[in-house]
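Record type: monomer structure entry
Structure origin: computed from sequence
Chain ID: A
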Amino acid sequence: MFFKRHQLMKPTRSVLVVLAALTLSLVPATPSFGATIFVSESGLNSGATLGNPSILKDVTDPAFDLNIYIIPDPVADVGLTYLGLSLGVRLSTPGVARITGGAVPNYDILVAAAPGTDIDDRWDGASGGTVSTDEFLDNMSGVSILADGIKLTNVGPLPGLFDDGYDTVAGAFHFATVTIDPSVGTGTTDLFLEVGGSGIARTGDLPAPSPMAASITFGDAEPTPVLGNVKGATGTMFDARITVVPEPSTILLLNLSLLLLFRRNRDVAK
């Protein structure tokens, strides 16, 4: 019979989560290469692909979720575990859309792909972060000390385990969702991912200013990776672009008004 390790150690878990950042700084150093993290409109097992999506909404559309995925490096991350993952989300232009919240699911770790036996959780603690302004959500995070974290072996089948948040088609682990409200105004705003307030750390990574940290790439074709121990570090390319247009009826009325004005001016010219 299998038992979740956290069921055997509940009295100490909350203390370990609080001490996570200190613990991460005590492990030996490893070279700095690491994961790709990207945004998709598609949820888990719904067709997510690595990219920098362009999203079109009208101002009357309801709030929608964007999904964040992580792909560990197939070479540099072998044998390593992402013990702490913290991200921020920032919109570049005020008055177009607003961030209303985030969520970090704590997926089960299974002996085999679903509906396999549940033996652990991905994280000891997870948080959807804090919305500090309409344009900024910080510290969406997952922390693992006793739990399994994110690692290449948790994609099944045995002898590895299976992370229930692993998207087998995308080849990526689903990490979080961010909720965006497009009803604020019209225009275009770029969404950028950044290293969150608690940083990103694998087995062996060290705190800043050490270069011994995961080198994180945000989105597709990003030319400038960042170190996971530099809080606020972000790429140079947007991770998603959100364009909000007026509601269709408004556009129709505007076009009708322009047509009537054109006809009136033509009649006056005659």
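Annotation 1: The longest helix spans residues 248-269.
Annotation 2: The domain at 5-269 is CATH 2.60.40.680 (Immunoglobulin-like).
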